[in-house]
């Protein structure tokens, strides 16, 4: 009885499956025209039997345009390198939280590490001696931070030549260039929790001591060359005090007072590794992080690192002294260099504006191929900048009292950055920063930005006038009380909300009573 029931169930299931497949195929072979026996409501509109439903045409024409995937991926990686603070945060955390526990990394035997450190010690004035703590840090970096170190190696191709040149001028060990990696992860606009800023992490007061200008427009702590010069001066001061580069490094991080206290508490010892336990926690991990970074960079090939080179080498750029106030956006428009590249080359200008201040000289760094264009057309470029600044001054009062229709609230999406948003709305990066009180370039997904755009935020009256003038031969509709884009779309056959937005250049959903809308192609 059980077997009979089972066979009967299988037979029924087989028949059902066959019927289902046949039914699906028959639907595919039928005409796509649907003729109901009674009227049907579709999208809020009543259609009679047999009435043809016109398809809604996408009038935007640019919705499916795509970039080259490979190039877009490279752009994204490069922009992340320029503007992300993730590496800086990672390094800061790693220095303060070193635990020196043994790390299993069989690719680097202890004997091999000892031999390499001995060779490294022979060619540098730093005390690069093997100990288990340093071995732990080196292996931890190799095992857990390989990708970030590879990215730092790529950035180093741009920054290290200028570091080496300045340190050579000041008779400082060239290996000191690795300190900038520990300090800032080679981010010229990096800012610590206590306000230390730039590649070499100067506090405001210390920067002033070394003639680093900090104003509303300029922060020399973010200028690679000026800040490196100041870092060299400070390191030389520390070396004159201690006569030891390891202790100079420790003093650079925590100040000479803390180093002197550690020496006293260690019974007068002046070897960094002997006083390390008496230093502040961050400084205790500071020199091991520096030495580990030095080792990995010096033996990068042996460990199979393949860094990506940046778009620019320092030798491929040059500087020109600016004669009048100008913004990086003006330079971008005049030379065709992307604003993001100009920001990378000129990180000291906080608002992307190079000021003109009597008694001070400000430089603009450009790719070499753009230097000729800029110098040849200097007068025209400055005239253009002046005209733009005059327009801005006239517009500011209007923006301050802008109506709801001239203001756009934009929500930051994945892949957005300031330059991209500025181009989309026809505004400048410096304006986005000013309107939203942004000090840096970092954005968060979901963050709301206020934008005043001529193209996307024109007042209702100007929009209305423009559309009436261009509405010849087209059907129009005057907005009444209680109307919305959706209710208006329902009044006209085959018209969607998106159609109305496209035909009338509307980005939001707000309407004003009396404005005229085009409601046909």
From TrEMBL:
Residues 408-451, 475-519 form the LysM domain. Gene3D superfamilies: 1.10.530.10, LysM domain. One of its GO terms (biological process) is peptidoglycan metabolic process. GO terms for molecular function: hydrolase activity, acting on glycosyl bonds; lytic endotransglycosylase activity. One of its GO terms (cellular component) is membrane. Its EC number is 3.2.1.-. Keywords: Glycosidase, Hydrolase. SMART domains: LysM (SM00257). InterPro entries: LysM, LysM_dom_sf, Lysozyme-like_dom_sf, Transglyc_AS, Transglycosylase_SLT_dom_1. It comes from the Bacteria. Belongs to the transglycosylase Slt family. This is Membrane-bound lytic murein transglycosylase D. It comes from Winogradskyella psychrotolerans RS-3.
